[in-house]
Amino acid sequence: MSRKSHHIVPNPQGGWDVKKGGASKASLHTDNKTDAINNGRLISQHQKTELVIHNKNGRISQSDSHGNDPNPPKDKN
Fold first, then answer.
1. Between 76 and 26, residue with greater pLDDT
2. Residue span of the structural domain in which 20 resides
3. Which of 23, 34, 35, 62 counts the highest number of beta carbons within 10 A?
4. Is residue 74 part of a domain?
5. Is residue 19 part of a domain?
6. Is residue 73 part of a domain?
7. Which residue, among 48, 21, 49, 27, has the nearest Cα to 39 in the 3D structure?
8. What distance in Å separates the CA atoms of residue 7 and residue 60, rounded to the nearest whole number?
9. Residue 77 above 60 pLDDT?
10. How many domains in the chain?
11. What is the DSSP secondary structure assignment for residue 3, as one 8-state letter?
């Protein structure tokens, strides 16, 4: 089973997008990365998905799991 996810990605025309994993269109567009992260986190928590945050160059900078994490931290058992 593939993991459901939302991604914070730079928009080629400027600003930042929140995209559901595999989607071609953005769920949400913001002018800055902070707003995209804050709104994307709310969407991800509500839909219990993985939130994947990308840098300006497109590389993944961090991720947060808001669903069933198959590898939870050892101190969270």
1. 26
2. 5-61
3. 35
4. no
5. yes
6. no
7. 27
8. 9
9. no
10. 1
11. P
How far is it, in rounded angstroms, from Cα 56 to Cα 66?
Answer: 23
The mean pLDDT value for 33-53 works out to 96
65 DSSP β-pair partners: 50
Count CB atoms within 10 A of the CB of residue 43: 16
DSSP, residue by residue, 56-76: TTS-EEEEEE-S--SS--GGG
pLDDT of residue 42: 97
For 1-77, list the strands marked E by DSSP. Answer: 5-10, 16-20, 28-30, 50-54, 60-65
Q: In this structure, is residue 38 part of a structural domain?
A: yes
Cα 33 from chain centroid (whole Å): 11
Predicted pLDDT at 1 = 42
Q: What percent of the chain has pLDDT over 70?
A: 83
> What's the mean pLDDT in 47-59?
95
Tokens of 39: 């709104």
> Phi, psi at residue 62, to the nearest 5°?
-165, 165
